[in-house]
Each structure stands twice: as structure tokens, then as C-alpha cells.
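Researcher: Good morning. I'm working through a list of sequences from a screen, and I'd like to move beyond sequence-only analysis. For each chain I'm collecting a predicted structure so we can compare shapes side by side. This is the next one on the list. No need for commentary yet; just the structure.
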Amino acid sequence: MRVDKELVLKNIRTHRYPYLLVALLVVLNIPVLTSLISDWMRDGNYSHGFFIIPISIWLFYRERQHLVFPAKNSGWGMALVVVGAIGMILGIAAGEYFTTRVSMVLVLSGIAWYDLGSSNFRKVWFAFFFLLFMIPIPSIIYYAATLPMQLLSSKVTVGLLKIIGMPVARNGNIIMLPNYSLEVAEACSGLRSLVTLMALGALYAYLKMPGRTLPVILFAATVPIAIVTNIFRIFVTAVGAYAISKDLAESFLHELSGLLVFITALILVIILGALLVWIRKRLQS
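Model: Good morning. C-alpha cells for this chain:
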């Protein structure tokens, strides 16, 4: 692809101040970005964060031909910059990474909204919204949600096992089989795959789903899909440990099943999206 240097230079001259502000934002937030990258490397729940920024840049780039200039600057964008800046100051002062990181995205979005104008920003808003998926949720929220997810998964799994006639009991998040005790650990709660699935579900809904309602429905559906497929994984593991060997619950096959279940959940999201589009077409015909 040939790059028009004159066009690039004209673009830089026209938007030089927003570019300078973005550069300043990046420089001021180098410690924040460094800690964010460290979280991606350390925590497998958020390793998808490495792909978020490149995808967001691509999402913005693909809409470049639909942007119309000159455009009137938006006061709402400047208001968002102010809100984000205040959040960054408070987050840094309190040592609260989540607030600081979200505020950084808000400032970046506000700069773009102000410079592009409201009509243009409506065409690229998702590129900035998508950046939020690179930010790990606060530990207090993560661990508060983990235990209920563990208990829900274990309760439903025990209920399913009883339906098929397996002798089983439950003690908290531990599924007790005659020959084995299967613990629904933190990593098996379903939150590990939920965050990544929500990011991919949002991206698929934005790119492939028509209208405004269907993308929201599909995005919301990623949560129950992740929960159901994770329960199915635990159910199959329990059956395998009882009927075949307890080694199935402890070997590499257990880890492999996590990847297979995630792929299954992603396929279900795509199938649901196609089904929603089909229903929409049927209702309109």
C-alpha cells in the first residue's frame, strides 16, 4: 500500500495539537502503561491485553475514509478530558491503578471526541471503548466474584451429576465423588475465560451485527455462555474422573479442556449472532 506523504503531512499539521496532547498523555503515563504490560505478562486472565491496542488502532483506521473534515470541535469531548484528568489525579494520589487506567482511556477518548467532533466520533467510538478491555478489573471485585462463581458452578454441576445418577455430594466448592474429590478452584470459576470472551464478543458484535439492539444482546449473552460452557467443562471432568480415571482431572487434559471450552464458547457466540441476524431478517420480511 502506497502512502501519500503529502496527505500524511497535511493530517499532522491539521491535528498537530491533539497529536501533541496524545504524546504528552503517553509520556506522563509511562509508569501506568508499564504496570499494565506487567499485568498482561503476569496474569493469564489478561494476556489478551497485548492485542487490544493494535486492534483498536485498526478499528480507528478502517473508518478513516468516513470521517468528514473540517469538523466542529465538541465541548463534550473537552468535558470528558476534564473528567478523565480529575480521575487520573485522584487515582495516582490514591495509588489506585484501575481508576488511573480507566481515566487515561477517558482522556484519550475526550481528546479524539473534541478534535474530531461529535459526528465523526460516533463513527470511531468503539475503537476507544474497546481499549477498556485491556484493563484488569480491580482485585477486590475479581475475588468477590470468584467465590460466587465457584459455588454456582459446583452447585449446578452436582445437580447435573445427580440427574444422570452419579453418587455425588458437595461441600462448598468441592464436588465429592466416591473415588475422588474435585475442587472447583479459582482458575475453574469461569472468570478466566469470561473477560477474554467478552472482549471478543464485543468485537464480533460491532463488526458483524446490524443495528444497535442486536450487538448489545450478543455482548450481554457472552456472560451466560461463558458460565454455561465452564459448567459443562467441570461436569465432563467429574464424569471422567468417576467413570474413567481421576487422572483426567489432574493431567494436562484438564488444562487442554479449558482451551477447548473457550473455543466452544466463542463458536456459540458466533452461532448466536448468526441466529439473531436470521431472526431479525425473518421479522422484517
